[in-house]
Amino acid sequence: MSSQTPDDGTGPGEQQWEQFLRSMLGDDADEAMRQMRERGLDPQALARGAGVGDDPRALEAVLAQVQRVLASSGDSPVNTDVAHDVARQVAVTGGDPVVVASQAKAARDALSVAELWLDVVTDLPPAGGGAKAWSRSEWVEATLPAWGRLVAPVAASVSEALATVLGDQMGELGGLDADASIPGLPPGALGGVLGQIDPASMMRRMGSAVFGMQTGQAAGTLSREVFGATDVGVPLLEEDVTVLVPNNVEAFAEGLDAPLEEVRLFLALREAAHARLFAHVPWLRAHLLGLVEEYARGITIDLETLEERVRSIDVSDTTALQDALSGNVFRGENTDEQKATLVRLETTLALVEGWVDEVTATAALPHLPHAVPLREMVRRRRAAGGPAEQVFSALVALRLRPRRSRDAAALWAHITAASGPAGRDAVWDHPDLLPGTVDLDDPAGYAQRGATARAEEADLDKALEAILAGDTAGIDDAGNQSGGAPGDDRADGPGDGLADGPAGDGPEGPGAR
Q: pTM of this prediction?
C-alpha cells in the first residue's frame, strides 16, 4: 500500500485524513479512492466537512470520536452512553438548579395532599412508592432507559438501512491495521480498537450512535418541559413513585393568574392520578408500550431518500448523520396493520388522559378556586405538544398526543353519572372492557350499547349451554334460542345492575380497542 503524501495543494490535516482512509482501504486503496471520488465522497471534502483542515489536533479529535463509537460494546440499536451524555448536556442547558429543601418539601406535601383528595373520588389506591422531587438531570437519569426501549425497534431498522446504504457507497472496505502508523499522529493513535473492520458492523454502530444522540436530545428537551414522571402519556418508570420537577412547575406557574401553590397542587393531582392508574391496572403499562413497539416495528425506511442524504457526508461525523436522519426518512403511508394499531394506541392514550382529566377535576373543584382555568390550560398544552414531542415524532414517526382526550373525559363523566366512581374505575379491569372509538363519538350512548352487548352475550351463552346439554329443540337454524323453549328464563344482563364495562371486540362495538 502506498504511503506517499499527495502533492496537490492540500493541507497537512487533509493529507493525514487521506492517509487514514488509505489505511482503512488496504491494498486496493487507489481503486477505492477513485470510486469514492466518482460517488461524490472526496477525501479532502470529507476532511473539511469533519473540521480537520490544516489542524492535526482536529484530526485527532475526529479519530477519537470514531474510536469511541466503534469501541462501544454490544449490538444495541441505541447507544445508551451517547444518549446519556447528550441528554444530560441538554437538560442542564441554561441551568439546572438543584432542588433545594424548601422546594422538595413543598412538592412532597402537594403530592401527599393530592393523594388525600383522590381518595374521595376514586377507589384506586395510591401508587405506594413514595413522593419525589427531582431536578431535570435526575428526571433524565430515571426515564432514559424507557426512551431507549421505545425507539429501539425503529433504531434497529434505520441502523440496518444505514449499513446497507453506506456499505454500497463505500464498497468493500479492507482491513485496518490497528498499529498502522499515520504521519502526524502518535503511534497507536487508533487505540487498537479498529482491527479488522466489518463495514456493516461499523455502520450499524454509527447508526446506534446517531439514535443515541437523537434519543438523548428528546429526553433532555423533555426534562425541561415535564412536570412529573407521567405527563407524557406513557409510563416511563418501573417503580410506582409520584414525582414533581419543582423548577419546571414554577416556570409554568409564572405568568398564570393562579398562585404557585394552586398550580403545584393541581399538577400533583394529575401526577398522582396517573400513578394510581399505572400501578393498579396491571395490564395497562405493557399494553401501551406494546402498542408503541408494535406500531414502530411496522415502519419501513425510504432507502432512496436516506442514500441521497448521506451521499456526501463524512461517515465518521455523527452530527452530520444525525442531521441526515432528522428529516422524514420513513416510507409512505401506514400499513393497514399500523393504522389499526395507531387507532388502538390513540384511543388508549385518550382514555388514560380523559380518566386523569375527569378524576383530577372532580378532586380539585372543592379545593382549588382556579381548578377550571388550570384544567383548560393543561388540556391545551397537552393537545398542542411541544419541541420534545416533535423530536420523538422524528424518531419513531409517531406523535404521543391524545387527540380525543376531551371526548374521553366526557365519556368518563357519563359513566360516572350512570354507574358511580366504582363503575367508572371497573372499566379498567380488562383491556376488552375498554370503550372504543364509537363510544368517544357518542358518550351518551355508551351505557345502552353496553346493555345491548351484555344481553346478546347472555342469549349466546344460553344457546351454547343448550347445545352442550344436547337440547336443540329450542334452537333455530341460526343458533338462536326460540322463545318457546322449555325452561327459558332469559335475563336482561349478567345481573350486576351496572353498565360497568362493555364487552366485545368488534371494530365499531363498545369493546373496540
A: 0.69
